[in-house]
């Protein structure tokens, strides 16, 4: 039996050239509709929040800054009284179901005791206060969401495994007494009740979450809840007997918290990005619940046919990931399946245990598509990466915004990695959106070349 080629893992000593993790507020406040986010930090963080999310001036976002000034930093003011004053105003103006405090680098440096202050104000105000330290100690800006979700996990209600089992036994006895109920109906009702203990974690738009719910429901596996939920008051129950599964590769802290603190079981699956990833994600969930998946191959094949116009553009092209948002492994696997060659996958941080299934699928994809396995560089040095790109001359570089213009000046087409963070790329249906982002710079260059040729012909004719 032929062994799979294992990716080459390297670790460099480069800096983390990514956004600040407090940018997670930009999408989390929209997902958790009854929340209010309070970022505790300096005025610089306020400027960043105003510019990074790109919120319109007429919008009313449910987040604000608790600005730290000289008096706070020099311990001349009472932190609890200052935060109490702000939270009282938030309750009066918005009356949210939960207030989420986002700690920043400043709160770490001055050792502000947010975890000690929060329970006192929570009891006083009668509103839950969740503390999440999304600061520059994280490797990537997307891990800000990981910090918030891990903190929210502790507020999920407890899943009563014994009570649920007793309810199922009572239902089974009730069905068994009714002689008119067919035996296959009894099996279906009992098995379906056992399949409702799946909680998915990861912040996705409601439409995308509904698509993934539908994908699993087609295989008779029902999703019992999402973390985060649209309403804080509707957080899913966690505990022994509950299975949890992630939809994003940057949620390793959220994956371990339910296992260690709530005795949940983690479904180690690839991530549902692209038709191939979505199929592998569903197959893994089905295997955990003892369900035989049906119709996945035919559905995936049809979706690939619908993507043929994009595949013609990128097949045979090469791509280089500089590393920014921790989606790199999943995107690389998807693009290899689309026919591209991936030279290198730079990634700020690599949790091999949490991404083990994704790495294995990457190896299988490279073998199936007969493409070389890319090297994976953790914490890459950007100067060295630019030198390698100069030698390899990739057709496309997926990079952070800071390096896009310098690479374009070197005649390397680029795509901002942050766009994949905000775009709807999960699930089979949204594969077109992901490929639209990838092919846009390639199509722009192709159109530019055709335009120059047309202009030169006109000039010659004149």
Task: Give a verbal description of the structure.
- There is one protein chain.
- The protein has 20 helices and 14 strands.
- α14 packs across α20.
- The chain is 49% helix and 14% strand.
- The radius of gyration is 25 Å and the shape is globular.
- The strands form three sheets. A six-stranded parallel β-sheet has the order 1-12-11-10-13-14, sandwiched between helices.
- It is of the alpha/beta class and 462 residues long.
- α2 (43-51) links the parallel β2 (35-41) and β3 (63-67).
- The chain folds into three domains: 21-139, 3-Layer(aba) Sandwich (Rossmann fold), CATH 3.40.50.1980; 194-289, Rossmann fold; 296-447, Nitrogenase molybdenum iron protein domain (Rossmann fold, 3-Layer(aba) Sandwich), CATH 3.40.50.1980.
- It has helices at 25-31, 43-51, 70-73, 79-93, 105-109, 114-125, 143-153, 161-177, 183-194, 206-217, 252-262, 274-288, 296-306, 308-314, 328-337, 356-369, 382-392, 401-409, 418-422, 431-461; strands at residues 9-11, 35-41, 63-67, 98-103, 129-133, 198-201, 223-227, 243-246, 265-266, 318-321, 341-347, 375-378, 396-399, 414-416.
């Amino acid at each position: 039996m032929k062994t799979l080629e294992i990716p080459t893992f390297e670790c460099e000593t480069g800096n983390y050239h990514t956004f600040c993790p407090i940018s997670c507020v930009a999408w989390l406040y929209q997902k958790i509709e009854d929340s209010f986010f309070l970022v505790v930090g300096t005025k610089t963080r306020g400027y960043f929040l105003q510019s990074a999310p790109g919120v319109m001036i007429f919008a009313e976002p449910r987040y604000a800054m608790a600005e730290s000034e000289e008096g706070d930093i020099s311990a001349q003011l009472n932190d609890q009284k200052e935060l109490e004053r702000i939270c009282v105003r938030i309750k009066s103006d918005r009356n949210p179901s939960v207030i989420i405090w986002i700690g920043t680098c400043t709160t770490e440096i001055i050792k502000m005791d947010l975890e000690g202050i929060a329970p006192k104000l929570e009891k006083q105000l009668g509103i839950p206060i969740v503390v999440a330290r999304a600061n520059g100690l994280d490797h990537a800006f997307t891990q800000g969401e990981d910090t918030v979700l891990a903190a929210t996990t502790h507020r999920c209600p407890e899943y009563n495994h014994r009570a649920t089992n007793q309810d199922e036994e009572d239902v089974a006895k009730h069905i068994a007494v009714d002689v008119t109920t067919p035996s296959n109906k009894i099996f279906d009702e009992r098995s379906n009740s056992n399949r409702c203990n799946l909680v998915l974690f990861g912040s996705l738009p409601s439409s995308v979450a509904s698509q993934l719910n539908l994908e699993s429901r087609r295989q008779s596996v029902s999703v019992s809840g999402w973390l985060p939920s649209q309403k804080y008051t509707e957080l899913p129950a966690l505990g022994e007997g509950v299975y949890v599964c992630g939809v994003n590769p940057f949620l390793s802290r959220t994956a371990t918290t339910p296992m260690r603190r709530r005795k949940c079981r983690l479904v180690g699956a690839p991530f549902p990005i692209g038709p191939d990833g979505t199929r592998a994600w569903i197959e893994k969930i089905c295997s955990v619940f003892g369900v035989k998946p049906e119709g996945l191959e035919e559905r995936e094949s049809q979706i690939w046919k619908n993507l043929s116009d994009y595949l013609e553009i990128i097949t045979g092209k090469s791509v280089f990931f500089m590393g920014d948002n921790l989606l790199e492994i999943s995107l690389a696997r998807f693009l290899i399946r689309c026919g591209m060659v991936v030279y290198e996958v730079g990634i700020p941080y690599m949790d091999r245990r949490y991404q083990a299934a994704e790495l294995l699928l990457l190896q299988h994809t490279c073998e199936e598509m007969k493409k070389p396995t890319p090297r994976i560089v953790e914490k890459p040095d950007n100067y060295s990466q630019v030198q390698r790109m100069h030698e390899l001359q990739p057709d496309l570089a997926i990079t952070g915004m800071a390096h896009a213009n310098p690479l374009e000046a070197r005649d390397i087409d680029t795509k901002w990695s942050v766009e994949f963070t905000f775009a709807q790329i999960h699930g089979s249906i949204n594969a077109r959106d992901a490929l639209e982002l990838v092919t846009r710079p390639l199509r722009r260059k192709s159109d530019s070349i055709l335009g120059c040729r047309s202009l030169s012909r006109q000039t010659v004719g004149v």
